[in-house]
Amino acid sequence: MMFIFVYPQLPYWKYFPYFENLMLEYTGKSIMSGRDDIWRPVIAAINEQPWFGYGPGTLPIDVTGIDLSTHNLYLQIALQNGYLGLLVFIILLLYFWIIFYRNLKDKTVRLVASFFIAILIHQSFEIALTQNQLSIGLMQWFIISVGISQVMYLNENHRPQ
C-alpha cells in the first residue's frame, strides 16, 4: 500500500534527479512509468469522497478527466467504494492469508499462498481481479479457491470423530 502513495511523490524527492539520471543512463528508461500522472489525481479525487467513494462503475475519467485506467486494483476500489470499501477488501484478503498461513504444512497450500502473494503484487499494476483482463482474474480467483478448497479438505479429514 505504501508503494501506491509513495511512488507518485518520488519526483518531489530531492535526490530523485540523481537516481533518474542513473536509471536513464544505464537502462534508457525512466523511473516513472506515467502511472504517477494517473495515480496523483486519482488519489486527490479519492480524498474528496474518502468514506464511500463515487460508486461502482466509476472510472478515473468520471472524476479526473483522465481517460486511462488506474492500473491499480487498490486505487480503483478506493475510487469506487472509498477507503471503507478498500478496508473491507483488505480484510477479505487478510482472511484468505490467515486461512493459508494456518495450513502451510501442506504443499498445495504453500504453493497457493505463494501465488496469492504474487497476485497481490500484480494487482498493484493491474485490475484483473475485478475488472480489466477478467480472463486473468478468473484464473487468479481459481488459484485462490483451490487453496481454500484444499484447506477445507484438510480440516474435514483431520477432524476428530
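That was protein one. Protein two is written in the same sequence-then-structure order:
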Amino acid sequence: MKAVTKRLIPAIFICPTYYLLKAFNGKSWKGEFAVPQAYHGDDLQYYFPSIKSYSPLFNNTDFIKSFSQSFLDVILSLNPNTQFDPTNPTPAWNHWSSNNTEMRFNKTSANEPDIWAISTDAGLLERCAFWHSMAAFMGQ
C-alpha cells in the first residue's frame, strides 16, 4: 500500500499544480515548500506567521520572511519580484514558463535558509504528462 500511495502523491498533489501553470499561459510562478519532511499542509504555518498557535518546523526568521512575503507580494502586486519589504531575502523569481523555473524553499543541514531557483525535474513533468493523459479515466 505504501508504494501505491507514493506513486499517487504526484498525481494528486503535485501534477495539478503544473496543469494550472500551463493554464495561466506564462503568467505564473511556481514555489516549492521543501523543508523536510515537507508533508502536505506543513507550509500553512509559514503563510500566516502571525498565528502563534503554529510551531514552525524550521523556525528561522529569514526563511519565514522569504516564504510568507513572497506569496504576499503576489497578492499585493501579482508579482513576487515586486517586494513591499526590501529586506525580503528571496532571489529573483522567473515565471515558471521560463525554463520550467520554480523557487525552492528549503533549509541546509546547518539550519540556514536555502532558497533558490531550480528547473522542474524533466522526469516529474513526464510522469505528470502520463497522469494528465489518464484524466478522462480518473476524474483528474
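Strands lie at 30-33, 101-107, 113-119. Keep this in mind for the problem set.
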